[in-house]
Write a structure and sequence with these properties.
Helix content is 5%, strand content 50%. A three-stranded parallel sheet has the order 1-14-30, with no helix packed on it. The chain has a three-stranded parallel sheet with strand order 2-15-31, with no helix packed on it. It has a three-stranded parallel sheet with strand order 3-16-32, with no helix packed on it.
Length: 404
């Protein structure tokens, strides 16, 4: 393109006159940026509460009968018959069921001790630019920019401790069951006959001596019968113990970022109108991230669990029978004197009947079924323990390119 001479001369004069003013304009600079963080955390401690549970014991059950000294008979006769009959003894017990032991459930308290730290840091710097807007001028420009960016983080965490609560559960014992009968000294019979001395008698001139005596003793013991119902001991109570869980942890998250955009210089659209323009740029963008994370030693102890199932109750349907239905008959004849002789008759000693008869009573026992109670189940679960350190560090440096 061809320009008139006057125009070119004017442009040169303008460029020469504007040069000192352009050199005196200060250039923008970006200040240094710095982030510093310090986090110190203590030693948290957590203890879950202990749990204790005890189930009540089941009540005992007793349907057994106790019989002493019933239906006994005593007969004593002097000079006559003695008859004793012991009464019958009968016992029948119903079913007996012992109460179940109470269940026990204990849960230890959970424990959680933790350190949580989150650190975020960011630096951002925009770029600088320059342009020559005067056509026909010679412009020399020099730019220097320095963007110093720094992030520093220090994180110290203590040693968390967590102890889960202990759990103890004891199931109650099942109650005993007894449907047995106790029968002692029942239905016994005792008969005793003692003859009376007889006087001498005479008849028709002939002495017959003493009269004959009848001394019978009869004793019959009563029957003893026992029947017991079924007996079932109560079941022992179940026991369930769960130890508390324990969790001790350190969690640290550190995020750091540096970002710097590029720098550039642009020529005016009129820069190619016969003027030569020179531009220099320099850039220095140091960026650094530094992170320090120190974590302690977490300790976690899961709670102990102890479970004891209750014992099953005893069952007894046995019958106890002693000294029942006995019979004793005793006859004691009296000694007779010699008879006197009369009318040529001699009868000698008088005669007597001394019979003793004893019949013992029958003893019968029938026991029901006996079932011992089942022992209670025991379930113990120790608490879980979790001790951990978790650290996450994110660092990012980004520096954009420069252009002319």
């Amino acid at each position: 393109m061809r320009y008139p001479t006057a125009v070119i001369a004017a442009a040169v004069a303008l460029a020469i006159g504007a040069a000192p003013a352009a050199a005196s304009v200060p250039l923008p600079t970006s200040p240094g940026q710095s982030n510093s963080s310090s986090v110190t955390q203590g030693d948290p401690s957590a203890s879950g509460g202990s749990a204790t549970a005890t189930g009540g014991e089941g009540g005992d059950a007793n349907t057994g009968n106790t019989q002493y000294g019933n239906g006994n008979a005593v007969a004593v006769s002097v000079g006559g018959d003695a008859d004793a009959d012991g009464g019958d003894t009968t016992a029948e017990s119903g079913d007996a069921t012992g109460g179940d032991g109470g269940s026990a459930d204990a849960d230890g308290g959970d424990a959680d001790a933790s350190n949580d730290a989150v650190v975020k840091q960011a630096n951002e710097s925009s770029g600088s630019s320059s342009s020559h807007g005067d056509c026909g001028c010679k412009s020399d420009s020099k730019q220097d920019s320095s963007d110093s960016q720094s992030n520093e983080s220090t994180l110290e965490q203590g040693s968390p401790e967590a102890s889960g609560g202990d759990a103890t559960a004891t199931g109650g014992n099942g109650g005993g069951a007894n449907s047995g009968n106790t029968q002692e000294h029942n239905g016994n019979a005792y008969a005793k006959s003692e003859p009376q001395e007889q006087k001498e008698s005479k008849s028709c001139g002939c002495g017959h001596g003493k009269d004959r005596g009848h001394n019978d003793a009869d004793a019959k013991g009563g029957d003893t019968t026992a029947r017991s119902g079924d007996a079932r001991g109560g079941d022992g109570g179940n026991a369930d113990a769960d130890g508390g869980d324990a969790e001790a942890e350190n969690d640290a998250v550190v995020k750091q970022a540096n970002e710097s955009s590029g720098q550039g210089s642009g020529h005016s659209p009129h820069g190619d109108c016969g003027c030569q323009s020179h531009s220099q740029q320099g850039s220095d963008n140091p960026q650094s991230n530094e992170s320090g994370v120190q974590q302690g030693n977490p300790e976690a102890s899961g709670g102990d669990a102890t479970a004891t199932g209750g014992e099953g109750g005893d069952a007894n349907t046995g019958n106890t029978q002693e000294y029942n239905g006995n019979a004793e008959a005793k006859s004691e004849p009296q000694e007779q004197k010699e008879q006197h002789k009369s009318c040529g008759c001699d009868y000698g000693k008088g005669g007597s009947h001394n019979d003793a008869d004893a019949d013992g009573g029958d003893t019968t026992a029938e026991s029901g079924d006996a079932t011992g109670g089942d022992g209670g189940s025991a379930d113990a679960d120790g608490g879980d323990a979790d001790a951990s350190n978790e650290a996450k560090v994110f660092q990012l440096n980004w520096l954009g390119g420069s252009r002319w």
